[in-house]
Amino acid sequence: MSTLLLIEQVLNGLQFGVMLFLMAAGLTLIFGVMGLINLAHGSLYMVGAFAAAATAAATGSFVLALVAALIAAAAAGAIVELTVIRRLYDRDHLDQVLATFALILVFSEGTRWIFGSFPLYLDVPAALAGPVTLPGGIEYPAYRLLIIGMGLAVAAGLFLLISRTRIGIQIRAGEADREMIGALGVDISKLYTLVFALGAALAGLAGALVGAIQSVQVGMGEPVLILAFVVIVIGGIGSIKGAFVGALLVGLTDTLGGVLLPEFFALFTEASSAKLIGASVASMAIYILMAGVLIFKPTGLFGGQT
Amino acid sequence: MTRAAMINAALFAMLPITAGVALALDEPFIITLATKVAILALAAVGLNIALGLGGLVSLGHAAFFGIGGYAMGILAHHAQSYTPLMELPFLIEGTKSMPVIWLVAIIASALAALAIGALSLRTTGVYFIMITLAFGQMLYYFAISWPAYGGEDGLSIYVRNGFPGLNTLVPIQFFGLCFAVLAVVLWASGRLARSAFGLALTAARQNPERVEAVGLTPYRLRLVAFTISGAVTGLAGALFADLNRFVSPTMFSWQMSGEIMIFIILGGVGRLFGPVAGAALFILLEHLLSGVTEFWLIYVGALLLLVVLFARGGLIGSLAGREVAHD
Amino acid sequence: MIEPLLETRDLCKNFGALQATDHVNISLVPGEIHALIGPNGAGKSTLVKLIMGSEQPSSGSVHFAGADITDLRRPERARAGLGRTFQISSLAMEHTVLQNAVLGALGRSGRVMRFLWPVMSDKALVAQAEQALERVGLADHRGALTGELSHGQRRLLEVAVALTLEPKAFLMDEPMAGLGAEGSARMTEFLDRLRQEAPILLIEHDMDAVFQLADRISVLVYGRVIATGTAAEIRANAAVREAYLGEEDA
Predict the structure, then answer these.
(1) Per the UniProt record, which residue ranges are transmembrane (chain B) (predicted)?
(2) Is A223 on the interface with B (CB under 8 A)?
């Protein structure tokens, strides 16, 4: 394999990884602060994608589409938090799983009701449609570079938010000791709604950005959600840093596994069956990675002791 | 007889009565629906061993359901195409015999549950939920990417597999067979709940430290429970595949895992007959609502939300009032 | 000298810079009640965890019945014959009193992998459990749900479950806590007789009970044993008076 192709695949892996980070960061924040497992996070991703596609179709502006995605997902998140989620904080994980599973059904079928069963398409803005030439002569789609850049910028912003701001202090206090933040005079229910809406906005942003390179359709969120779970299991629950490292690991493993594993098996068997075996093993590569982490560190790479 | 026991008996009788009436009215479709309820209830009875008794919130039981389904699909596929399953190191032929298929389905799904459980049970709580979900998804993608058995399109089996002494092509006979399997497994799972193992397992759910202090290992108890649970759900998968004469990766999907769990919740967690009530209610809703609206799952979602938020005992709980989960 | 049944040898546990357990050597010989006392934060809980296997020591070892059990897990220590009661009642609250006791007997028998035979029909296990309940005076409550017991009754049930294990030694973590005067007196009387069956390592805040029961007392301060001796010796010990019994000497 050529170095050029390899670098291109590494970039693809990075792009996939930062998208997963946007999903996983929200999930891990919500779990860390409120102790809630939210299966409906994938629905918020879908809401962002649909809002972006609809806005882009109406206005033709990609920037407006992104803004709409952020607003729609954050609003959906806030509404869901106020009506359903806040009743679940004191419940056990089983109730949380079931209620948020029910929310998936409502979101998915509701979206199908409004937008129909056919996928929508969101076009990459014209200015970013072409490739750019990177140092070393690598041609790479400008839009995908933008995704990587935005993902990294959001990650940096999130780190700053958590480590430097008042909200961040409250969030960290909430993760350490839920009763403490009440004592600090923080309005807990407002903080919870805010954190949930923030997580939702990140998911919606991811949905909108990915929506331009894949089709926008009902059910697009759940496969990403499950990958985000894998990311969190690998990184450790509640850790933003873990989510970041885990997301890049998963993104790179999945992308490079799809390319390298067939070549790897070609060393042992003939080309056609190597391709088959390679593809099948690649489809499981990230789960094998997860199993490996579980064997050596059940609480994840950056998880605390249980 | 307590009120709960009467409701259980009524629920249990409801299935064969429905099938019998449908037979008299010559409505084979209704018999098929009753068969579907019995099979899905069986899958949920399996999950309930892990969830209700062990407190293990597995969101990946579709893995075992799918493995059971593919055990049937692969064996019957080789039998109908007259190709051996493998020739080396020894010859294995396909089969159209249900007892053999069931045995293979049970063993294969038990082994998978043992492996997945051994890893997942190293963690607890929300990790466990996410990991079981992820392993389920792993098998889903594997089934899609492995082309030998139809990949994304799945496998069709032309003729339903046979059972000695029965004509399984007759709907009422196949229903009777599935119902008998459900009855046997319900009986066994009721006995399990009251056995030595059941006592230790339920105690480990409530207080693992206590169980350790009497010299028992919660991990081992849970792993055995998870394996039994997976095996039962795998058996249901083989029957489900035979009902449809078709297997596809959707049997592995996370929605399937969620639905199996919904059956338990709609019926009532930790109740022996909860899965039967839940599966019956779900299929009834599907049947009634899907005629009215294409988006019937919205109503199922809303109902589930209401049950979780306001009626935690499920259907049996609402009918029978509060009752302790064990006896 | 009598061979100790339970013994810690130079047991240490650090949490970062904090030395929670500092070269602790304590022993339990057959027939005795050895009480472990110390102010809050002295490291009693950590020492219990080290002995029961909930924490691994930084250095040192734990010996029981002639074997090094430092590397054994909690269930293995229980099977080796170390019966315990918890500081905070730790029972299966949804099960009946009798079921909790049967769980103990079941653990003792080791025959847990029985899947189809009702455990409450196992006459031998139930008889063993009922006998233990009888001894602590809970026989009348056998059918009650554990969650509905009073606090004091739960303490008694903890002891009953430990009895079903027929352990070689008991480790009891504040069995008197919250019992009230009458309950404490009864528990004291019960433990007094129990020591003949198996020695007891007793962690307790109730000083009346400790001085009444203990053959030996060890005083733990800042993770170190500052004195071990009879009740009279401990009362007279200057270091103990200064560190623990209060400022009246100062």
Answers:
(1) 34-55, 62-80, 100-119, 126-149, 169-188, 223-240, 260-284, 296-320
(2) yes
